[in-house]
Specification:
The protein has about 300 residues and is α/β, with parallel strands linked by helices. The chain has twelve helices and nine strands. The protein folds into two domains: about 140 residues, Aspartate/ornithine carbamoyltransferase (Rossmann fold, 3-Layer(aba) Sandwich); about 140 residues, Rossmann fold (3-Layer(aba) Sandwich), CATH 3.40.50.1370. The chain is about 40% helix and about 15% strand. Helix 6 packs parallel to helix 7. The chain binds phosphoric acid mono(formamide)ester and norvaline.
Amino acid sequence: MTRHFINLSDAGGDAIAAMIADAIDRKAARKSFPKGKADADAPLAGHTLAMIFEKNSTRTRVSFDMAIRQLGGTSLILDGATSQLGRGETVADTARVLSRMCDAIMIRTDDHAKIEEMAHHATVPVINGLTDLSHPCQIVADLLTAVEHGVSLPGSQWAWLGDGNNVLHSIIEAAGLFKFDVRIGVPEGYDPDPSFEREAQALGATITRTRDPHAAVANADIVVTDTWISMGQAHADEKLRAMMPYQVTPALMAHAKPGAKFLHCLPAHRGEEVVEEVIDGPQSLIWDEAENRIHGQKSVLLWALGRLG
Ligand code: CP
Ligand code: NVA
């Protein structure tokens, strides 16, 4: 069976725990290496990852490129505008062709149905580099960052502030797999897709939605936010006004546990979803989180190609 990574549940909790453990080991083993040097075992030597970008990216693009290099392989990038995908060649045919030429496909796109279609027709692993619905690779890095900083995932308390978006959906999915709790502070009209909440709750997570930002962060171990306007969404003053009470400030962080950590997938909009004192302050883990995209991606690639879990 081809191992696609469209959502976190494709791998499941045990495999993601193995990914986190492997990422910690590999990160430690190459501490003194230049960033482009391959790991000593170069487990994916000879492998090529095709990356398709139909939306902008800095971290996902660079981290997957560095990840496959560090595993001994190489990558190539296609973008919507210059590939035949952009001129109407079908997702299905693109999947069939890339499966003959490359060992794995990573795609960042808008409509989640596109990545499902790609996985349906590909005979090599398809990895979700973000869709409008979910961002599982980001959450592998977030879980890794939390664990590295001493958080024991089961029973931990996560607070989300702001828009009910793709990143939140993957956090809720992770909560179900690792049995942690998420309190979501979100204004009316911007709730997450309830199917993620139902599934996580069925697996034993407690997912609570509140309109009160203070209640959302009360006693939290981890406080997370993201842009109020995701890629592909129109800039709307009305939405920004609705989100303002959920801005992460030092006053809001004071309601979380002492020593609570702050995460943000980036890119950030300082002065909108978070203020400088928090994102650039001592509780913020954003640079470890960004670096961990490389280490997390390596684990995802190893799992997808049958070398892990
Ligand atoms: N966090 C994240 O996915 O960043 P990019 O959009 O830069 O890839
Ligand atoms: N929610 C954001 C995440 C960017 C990494 C977006 O979809 O634009």
